[in-house]
Write a structure and sequence with these properties.
The structure holds two protein chains of two kinds. Helices cover 0% and strands 60% of the residues of chain A. Chain A is mainly β. In chain A, strands 2, 4, 5, 9, 10 and 11 form a six-stranded mixed sheet that branches. A five-stranded antiparallel sheet of chain A has the order 1-3-8-7-6, with no helix packed on it. In chain A, a hairpin with a 6-residue loop joins strand 4 and strand 5. Chain A is globular and about 45 Å long. The N and C termini of chain A lie far apart (41 Å). In chain B, strands 2, 4, 5, 6, 9, 10 and 11 form a seven-stranded mixed sheet that branches. Chain B has a four-stranded antiparallel sheet with strand order 1-3-8-7, with no helix packed on it. Chain B is globular, with a radius of gyration of 13 Å. Classes of the chains: A mainly beta, B mainly beta. Chains A and B meet through strand 4, strand 5, strand 9 and strand 10 of A and strand 5 and strand 10 of B.
Chain lengths: 110, 115
């Protein structure tokens, strides 16, 4: 069965304190790995798609990387507005639906 | 604003009742997806429609059904509601004309509370 596990469940950082969120996956065949950001009371917002091991994508203070078994979302010098839940999802080659992890709740304090 | 519209935003009902959630996709998107989000299970895929036809089915209960209309809006019908159906229900659309475009645009969700 396809599985996506995110860690940690929650992370509290001081403004400017860089860190990484982890997404590990077990799938029959990977078509793509996705990162979404979800703010309270809102729907997830697309951040990145990664397709192959070694690929990296960047957007402002966020950088996503992918290996054959996991993905990292690196947050450099975070600001309070980066506080949100970050969701990882995989799309498999078979069923093609997105399988989401349960997310990492990030809180960045000023 | 994602361009995906969901109504209503909140719904409070009683066990055994039936409700309908409505979704209008982004202009030009032919695919509509329904997801259920609960605190303990995260986002669970329910069903996908593409241009009016069911394309993929996930963990959708038999008490739940959906359809996509010719104008591409979609409705999710939940019947014989149970306490455990309380959750946030999201609609998403994607891909313009592609049925497999994976970049989803989510609506703001419908918070369903079954009392």
């Amino acid at each position: 069965e396809d599985q996506v596990t995110q860690s940690p469940e929650a992370l509290r950082l001081q403004e400017g304190e860089s860190s990484s969120l982890n997404c590990s996956y077990t799938v029959s065949g990977l078509r793509g790995l996705f990162w979404y950001r979800q703010d309270p009371g809102k729907g997830p917002e697309f951040l990145f798609t990664l397709y192959s091991a070694g690929e990296e994508k960047e957007k402002e203070r966020l950088k996503a990387t992918l290996t054959k078994k996991e993905s990292f979302l690196h947050i450099t010098a975070p600001k309070p507005e980066d506080s949100a839940t970050y969701l990882c999802a995989v799309q498999t080659t078979g069923f093609q639906k997105l399988v989401f992890g349960t997310g990492t709740r990030l809180l960045v304090s000023p | 604003d994602s361009g995906v519209t969901q109504t209503p935003k909140h719904l409070i009902t009683a066990t055994g009742q039936r409700v309908t959630l409505r979704c209008s996709p982004r202009s030009g998107d032919l695919s509509v997806y329904w997801y259920q989000q609960s605190l303990d299970q995260g986002l669970q895929f329910l069903i996908q429609y593409y241009n009016g036809e069911e394309r993929a089915k996930g963990n959708i209960l038999e008490r739940f059904s959906a359809q996509q209309f010719p104008d591409l809006h979609s409705e999710l019908n939940l019947s014989s509601l149970e306490l455990g159906d309380s959750a946030l229900y999201f609609c998403a659309s994607s891909g313009g004309e592609s049925p497999t475009n994976e970049k989803l645009f989510f609506g703001s969700g419908t918070q369903l509370s079954v009392l």
